[in-house]
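User: Thanks for the earlier help. One more: 3-isopropylmalate dehydratase large subunit. Can you show the sequence and predicted structure together?

Assistant: Of course, both are below.
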Amino acid sequence: MAQTLSEQILSQAAGKPVRAGEVATVAVDLVMMHDSLSPSIIKIMEQELGAERVWDPERVAVVVDHVAPAATVQTAEKQNEVRRWVQRQGITHFYDVGRGISHPVLVEEGVAQPGMVIVGSDSHSTAYGCVGAFGSGMGSTDIALAAATGRTWFRVPETVLVRATGRFRPGVNAKDLALRAARELRADGATYAAVEWHGVEFLTVMERMTLATFSIEVGAKAGLVPPVGIPQVAPEWLRVEEGAIYSRVVEVDLNTLQPQVSAPSFVDNVSDLGDLGRVAVDVVYLGTCTNGHYEDMAAAARILAGKQVAPGVRLMVVPASRDAMLRATEDGTLATLLAAGAAIGTPGCGACIGRHMGVLGPGETCLFTGNRNFRGRMGSPEANIYLASAEVAAATALAGYIADPQDVL
Ligand SMILES: CC(C)[C@H](C(=O)O)[C@@H](O)C(=O)O
Ligand code: SF4
């Protein structure tokens, strides 16, 4: 019987064929935890599970990304506790302040690979689907258990297929596809399902991460792009099979897709940018695991080259990783952004969860390239957050109001 990508991966990990709807106990290939939840995971491991050691120090990755560098004395202290624990455990995949957001970092380091089962203490662990891994976010207790035993369980998810056809027009990209899918599926449209994104094999790995991270925003357990057309080599048992069963199919014609914008304060409150009316902004924030990649900075730099950010607008650029920042430094992308007036932050999550590095004040409006715009996400509950692509972000920074890249090129 033909299987979806999730069924194939979970069957391998369970050591027997499993189908959607079944509960499977599986071996995990990698457990990721970050600074935000590591202290509670460690506490649960030690105090509730009585586990002094992780099951395999080579297969637990720890990343300091959420409040990096530390913004308070308390955070600094907690992060030092995590560093000491990492040393005691002999964990080799430890990435400290400045290396970047866990999701791109584990892909860049080659730790996340096609066909793996990866669980992380972060809802956007669906990100690893950008290389065709089954990535899923879990709470502290489940992560503690997986880190201590190397095993976890899943109800094997049904799969929602998003099938793209055609090619993006200039100024339209993977973020618009993600937002278009959210508009169609709504925030609960793929609850506990996996999303498979087909017809996007022309995208780079990090462009695929935009789709994979966004899968959780429609409720998904995992979000996978078939691992073809990328440098990572997939196991030969992992491929799209004719006849696999999808619980729902969403078709998107990229040839006619317009720039999409999600208006406050729900991710699925999406419309064509052209139907939005004139929305003035105070802040444009380019970053996150969804759209802080090299590709995003380069696309923004192409629009901003030789121009200036509109008076009164603050443009924040926070690279998703050091690798992305290095590449953007080497080819002049970063210089272009700085010359246009951008403020550059340390690679990491930045202000995405409103904890530091550019949180929003009451009454401010922000055009954000991230994935969540609920009230209070980036600071004040009285701030307004609009989600869009890096190209829309750059056009908006120039215009001072939410603008179509086509109109400023
Ligand atoms: C802090 C962390 C647990 C959280 C998540 O799980 O996603 C954060 O990364 C987010 O994007 O809201
Ligand atoms: S960049 Fe934002 S969405 Fe991504 S892991 Fe960090 S806080 Fe979560």
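User: Great, one quick takeaway?

Assistant: The pocket of iron/sulfur cluster (ligand 2) is lined by residues 66, 101, 122, 124, 288-289, 349, 352-353, 370-371 (CB under 6 Å).
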